[in-house]
Amino acid sequence: MDKTLRYILCVLLLAAFACSAEAIRCYECNTRDNNGCDDPFSDAIQKTGCAQCVKIKGKKNNIQGVQRDCLTERLPYDGCESGTENGFTGDTCVCATDLCNTSDRTAHVSMFLMALASFIATQWLY
User: Fold this and answer.
1) Which of 39, 37, 91, 42 is closest to 69 using CA atoms?
2) Between 20 and 30 A from 23 (CA), which of 51, 63, 66, 73?
3) Using one digit for the tens of pLDDT, what is the confidence trace for 49-78?
4) What's the pTM?
5) CA distances from 76 to 30, 41, 51, 60 (A)
């Protein structure tokens, strides 16, 4: 395959991923107001026009809670992080596909796909 054709295929592949950056739908709830928001997840409203979805699950002052929300501006990453800040200990997961904030696991899918696309693109170019 000549270098020009490989370049065109890489641009098309990256353009396909860029199209996935359009607005998505996310679940929006918290366990303080809605018991269905807890895990296992069963009930929440859907918000449209989101850049990414987020799920925060943790504990503060021995009270455990879950919040699912819509981010209107895109963060530079997808995935999950654990930590402690201001007495809150828990996990935060960010994802960028429709209704992806139902569980902890789905946040890693788009990160994996982007890494795979990058790997394939570098193999075609060199």
Assistant:
1) 37
2) 66
3) 999 999 999 999 999 999 999 999 999 989
4) 0.65
5) 24, 27, 11, 27
